Every structure is written in C-alpha cells, then in structure tokens.
Amino acid sequence: MWTPLYASVAWAGGRAPARARGGQRRAVATGLAADLALNADWNRLFLGCRSPKAGVVGTLLLDISSAALIRRSVRAGTTAALALVPHAAWCGFATALNLSVARRNP
Q1: Alpha carbon separation from 54 to 33, 51, 59, 65, 106 (Å, rounded)
Q2: How far is CA 20 from CA 5, 7, 75, 89, in A?
Q3: Taking a C-beta distance cutoff of 8 angstroms, is the pair 4, 84 a contact?
Q4: Could you tell me if 58 and 43 are in contact, meaning their C-beta atoms sit under 8 angstroms apart?
Q5: Tens digit of pLDDT per residue, the chain (106 long)?
Q6: How many Cβ atoms sit within 10 Å of the Cβ of residue 24?
Q7: Domains of the chain by residue range
C-alpha cells in the first residue's frame, strides 16, 4: 500500500511547489518536509520506543500535518491536493488502528 501512496505524495510534492508562487512555494515545501518527517518518526515512536500511546500521538500529528499539506497544496492547484487525499485517508486509518492497539495494551 505504501508504494502507491508515496508515489502520489512524491508526484504531488513536485507538482504543488512547481505551481506555487513566492511564500506559498516555501509553505508547501515545508509542509511536505514536515509530513514526511512525521511519517518516518511514527516508526521510532511506535516500534522503537515500543509505545502504542506515543504512536497515537505521532499519528495524530501526522493527520494534522497531512490535512495542512492538502490545504496548502490546494492553493497551488487542486490536482496536487487531490493526489494527497489517499495518503491522508490512509494516515487516518492508521490512527484508528494505532488507537486500537494502544487501548488493548495499556
């Protein structure tokens, strides 16, 4: 599942900044970098720290970041923003799964 999701994020991550202007370009690029960093950090929080609760915090931050990235990208054009929607949806699903694991492992 991650291969097509990362492919769409990569495509949108190239398209949105290319179509954005001035400070908007920087905001999109910064949002993309934050989203990718939070995505990678979840592994450290959940698996490395062996903490489902920390993983929930990480996925919630990723959900917020993904929504903000879509919002920033839509200003540069709806095509790139729409390409990010499956990633955001998958992150929301991952949050629900992570929350379920955290509830079962207090």
Answers
A1: 21, 5, 9, 16, 12
A2: 22, 20, 8, 24
A3: no
A4: no
A5: 889 999 999 999 999 999 999 999 999 999 999 999 999 999 999 999 999 999 999 999 999 999 999 999 998 889 999 999 999 999 999 999 999 999 999 7
A6: 16
A7: 2-104
Instruction: Please check whether residue 63 is in contact with residue 95, taking contact to mean a CB–CB distance below 8 angstroms.
Output: yes
Two structure tokens written together for 9: 């994020």
Residue 17 tokens, joined = 């900044």
Q: How far is CA 42 from CA 15, 17, 25, 85, 92, in A?
A: 26, 25, 26, 19, 13
Q: What is the pTM of this model?
A: 0.90
Between CA 18 and CA 24 the distance in angstroms is 10
